Amino acid sequence: MALDWVNKIQKHIDKKYATASFVSKNPDLLIVLGGDGTILEAARKFHHTSNPLILGLNLGNVGFLASVRNPENFINSIDQFLKGKFTVLERMVLSAEVLRSGRKVFSSEVLNEVVMQSVFGMVDLEVLAGGSSIRKIRGSGVLVATATGSTAYNLSAHGPIVMPNIKCLIITELMDHNIPTPSIVVKYNEEVTVKISGFRQKGILSISKNKEKADVILIADGDKISSLKKGDIINIKSSNHLVRFVETEPDYFFKSLKDKFSVR
Length: 264
What we know:
Blueprint: H1 2-16, E1 29-34, H2 36-46, E2 53-58, H3 74-82, E3 87-100, E4 103-110, E5 113-118, E6 123-129, E7 132-145, H4 153-156, E8 168-176, E9 184-187, E10 192-199, E11 205-206, E12 213-214, E13 216-220, E14 224-228, E15 233-247, H5 252-261
Parallel strand pairs: 1-2, 2-15
Antiparallel strand pairs: 3-4, 3-15, 5-7, 5-13, 6-7, 6-10, 7-8, 8-9, 10-15, 11-12, 13-14
């Protein structure tokens, strides 16, 4: 289906917009056909180069990251963009790094979330915001999400839904064995720190990239995975980069919520 739409879109643009051209590098506009995972992958791939505007055309389920949900509106949305009838929504990106004995062993930028999670058991964590200890968790782990990521893993973990134009960090525990506590939303300029206090080492899992044994792992946007050790410190803060999404449909986010939760 995606390839059929690629052909339709290319023919339409070639026919109606002689000044527009298709390029393989440094595009001004990135038209992405697929679900949220595909759009997320495209955003990661290009935002360090030309940082293009992203027009997501949803071929997945609901498509919170897409600009257009219904394929019937794909061509019209492209026309709206090329006629300048659109708005731009800048979405926050998180920067995460892992320090081990004072040395940086991992770093990544994420659009959705950073997850620190025990694979088969429990992990003891301490979470700090702005240097103040705000939570100690003994359970499966914790995630720190952007507003964009609030409708992803954070939502599955019963975290809050946050409008995508709000710049913030959402801290949501994962299966805490203590008294369950609600998520905490902090301002975008606060740095969140997660300390790995301890866990039982079993060495059941190994990271395929380097065959390193792991019991607790960090997952960045469901894509990059790194093992975590006792004493590791994970620093998470707002990145200087922003990902820019095209909006051609008024109240798109609320319409997506209605579709997701079948609200009529």
